[in-house]
Prior knowledge:
Shape: globular
Bound molecules: adenosine-5'-diphosphate, aspartic acid, magnesium ion
Amino acid sequence: MLVVQKYGGTSVGDLERIRNVAKKVISYREKGDRLVVVVSAMAGETDRLISLATSITKSPNERELDVLLTTGEQVASALLAITLNSMYCEAVSLQGHQVRIITDSTHTKARILTIEKDRIFSELDKGRVVVVSGFQGIDVNGNITTLGRGGSDTTAVALAAALEADVCEIYTDVDGVYTADPNVCPRARRLDAITYEEMLEMASLGAKVLQIRSVELAKRYNVPVLVKSSFVDGPGTLVCKEVPKMAMEKVMISGVTFNKNEAKITISKVPDRPGIAAKIFSALADSNIVVDIIVQNVSKGNYTDITYTVAKTDAKKAYKITEQVAKEIGAEQVILDENIAKVSIVGSGMMSHYGVAAKMFSTLASEGINIEAITTSEIKISCVIEAKYGELAVQALHKAFGLDKEDIEEE
Ligand code: ADP
Ligand code: ASP
Ligand code: MG
């Protein structure tokens, strides 16, 4: 078997943990598997490097930021290779540019274009474990790039796809994908399996256990992804194309997520005529700002209100642009609210059940939580609420939809 394994920051957080990873790797080698191991930077290291750069200037040069951030993974990959070699398991570390993981040139959020296989296969053929630094690549001009926060997941899945590995195992600090973040909702349950579609929604709605782009890749190339704990043994969660019916039948909702990284911008008293929305959102698109939820009210006396959400990191920029456009189109006021959370329920069971939205809204109402905006897709419903209610909302919805551990045990 050819196995790609990825160990996240906490899993390689100190030398003791790196030794623990090395032991795991060796146990696979002893079974005869060929192993490519992707590592993240040691826990907290990427944040530390970012804060060093931003203490010099608020907006560090992005090319240089990438050079800086990739050092975190370089350290971790070398330390793991040194540890493996010291334990008599031949290993070699490779950085993104040595493998030749070619990306586009969008510094800090580059996309993988191609992965060259020759170097990795030649090392594997020599009987070595190949340790690859996650999160990094190189563009066609030889500049170092990074793949965005959480990008080591994407490195692992992309490698698994390129090398046609039998499985991609993601080792992290939780023992699988849960019905809600187990650190927020103590009654959350581990899922045995989840479909790519559901995992995509969960990841895009705030479940950071897998970077969304890694799930997109896994889906496109049909890579089975197994999420497991590096600290305790267990079956983990399989992310795959189809989940056996038995597990799905009774399930209306597979998970509840929340995200506090968005901000809400409202433009009030917008003249209601064709082309106005296009004008506002074209201005944002021209500045590479991704807009998430958009809500427009029914017009009253030829005026309407428009509300949208963006990532908090883009909020100030979006606010400035919107104020400018608001002046041009004669809207009354622009209000920025960074104090929001988006809470979502996800599940393909929703397609065949009625009353799901009603249940979500009444659950929030019974907790006294006001809904500020709503969006839906076939398999998810999201509500924007006040930030301070985020955790409470997750717990209440988790219970209301029968996902709590207790309810399952009673069945
Ligand atoms: P790593 O450093 O291994 O990449 P991350 O911190 O990126 O780990 O992701 C693991 C974390 O994801 C968990 O500690 C957990 O708090 C969070 N998480 C959020 N939602 C979920 C979920 N539905 N299931 C499991 N973990 C989740
Ligand atoms: N070290 C990077 C981060 O902290 C990439 C990763 O861990 O996946 O975002
Ligand atoms: Mg991660």
